[in-house]
């Protein structure tokens, strides 16, 4: 995968799990990148967005900034909307002024999660949570503002280095004692930030070449599993007894926001951009696991 050298990228939300991974991979490829954390840019401030884009004039902007507290969004939807919905709109308008391609990260929560087959990119969204509604608003703001240069990449069940996630939590619990209750009635595709970051790089490069049609793409590691089965696989890889993972139903967890029972996403659109979909989730987990295990043993996170 070739990223045009000299084409500056700007990554918002760069202090998060995905933003950090993406920034590191861009730097290793010699691509000029401007990483922006929350302290560097408040995406809810349209003037700040315009000023930063005008100053840096990036070829590609990847917006990883988001309100990700799913349950808290139920009680604070207006605040979540400012970040997840209005913020991408501000960035998109700034990108339109500078001719920048924009990649907006989104989520499986834009769907109801009640399907009996993988969701395609053109399936109608029907979010059931405040988080899903705010992320859908961000999608629409980007695509409406940048019909020729806006890209929405939906992902799900993300894990990696440098942030709280299910895989790291299960590695920590595997090293403890006792049983661990994990839901077995939610289905999805565990997705490694390393694979997702590589796909974002490839999409941005294809966008600059003019070979990637703008619009919606799904980027998840292929295949599907349940949280319970994933936890058992993590315990096995960590050398712990998978039998310690106890299956429970979602109804046993009292949460303000409903979790989608079915979050499997199809990846059919990548072929239109001349790119391959992400590999199987088991292969990705096998590659990511040693570094995550070492990080857990040190009691911290690992930089890749």
From TrEMBL:
Alphabetical list of Pfam families matching this protein: RmlD_sub_bind
Instruction: Set out the biological process GO terms recorded for this chain's protein.
Output: dTDP-rhamnose biosynthetic process
GO cellular component terms attached to this protein's record: cytosol
Q: Where is the RmlD-like substrate binding domain?
A: 9-289
InterPro entries reported for this sequence: dTDP_dehydrorham_reduct, NAD(P)-bd_dom_sf, RmlD-like-bd
Which keywords does this Swiss-Prot/TrEMBL entry list? NADP, Oxidoreductase
Quick check: keyword Oxidoreductase in the entry? yes
Q: Which pathway does this polypeptide act in? A: Carbohydrate biosynthesis; dTDP-L-rhamnose biosynthesis
Per the UniProt record, which EC number(s) apply here? 1.1.1.133
Any one GO molecular-function label of the UniProt entry = dTDP-4-dehydrorhamnose reductase activity
Which protein family is named in the record?
Belongs to the dTDP-4-dehydrorhamnose reductase family.
Q: What does this protein do?
A: Catalyzes the reduction of dTDP-6-deoxy-L-lyxo-4-hexulose to yield dTDP-L-rhamnose.
**The name this protein goes by in its record:** dTDP-4-dehydrorhamnose reductase
Task: Tell me what organism the protein belongs to.
Answer: Streptomyces glaucescens
Underlying gene: strL
């Amino acid at each position: 995968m070739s990223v045009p050298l000299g084409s500056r990228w700007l990554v918002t939300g760069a202090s998060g799990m995905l933003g950090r991974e993406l920034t590191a991979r861009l730097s290793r490829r010699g691509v000029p990148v401007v990483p922006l954390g929350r302290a560097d840019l408040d995406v809810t401030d349209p003037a700040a967005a315009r000023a930063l884009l005008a100053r840096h004039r990036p070829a590609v902007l990847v917006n990883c900034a988001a309100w990700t507290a799913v349950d808290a969004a139920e009680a604070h939807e207006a605040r979540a909307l400012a970040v997840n919905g209005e913020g991408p709109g501000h960035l998109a308008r700034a990108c339109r002024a500078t001719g920048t391609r924009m990649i907006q990260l989104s989520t499986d929560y834009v769907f109801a999660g009640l399907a009996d087959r993988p969701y395609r990119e053109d399936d109608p969204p029907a979010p059931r949570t405040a988080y899903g509604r705010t992320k859908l608003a961000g999608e629409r703001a980007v695509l409406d503002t940048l019909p020729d240069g806006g890209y929405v990449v939906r992902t799900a069940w993300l894990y990696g280095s440098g942030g709280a996630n299910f895989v790291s939590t299960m590695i920590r619990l595997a090293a403890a004692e006792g049983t661990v209750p994990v839901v077995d009635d939610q289905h999805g595709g565990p997705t490694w930030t390393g694979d997702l970051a590589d796909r974002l790089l490839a999409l941005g490069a294809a966008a600059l070449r003019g070979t990637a049609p703008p619009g919606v793409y799904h980027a998840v590691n292929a295949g599907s599993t349940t949280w319970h089965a994933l936890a058992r696989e993590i315990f096995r890889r960590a050398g712990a007894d998978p039998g310690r993972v106890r299956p429970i139903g979602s109804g046993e967890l009292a949460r303000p926001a409903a979790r989608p029972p079915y979050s499997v996403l199809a990846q059919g659109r990548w072929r239109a951009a001349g790119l391959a979909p992400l590999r199987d989730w088991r292969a990705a987990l096998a590659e990511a696991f040693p570094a995550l295990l070492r990080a857990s043993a040190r009691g911290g996170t690992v930089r890749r």
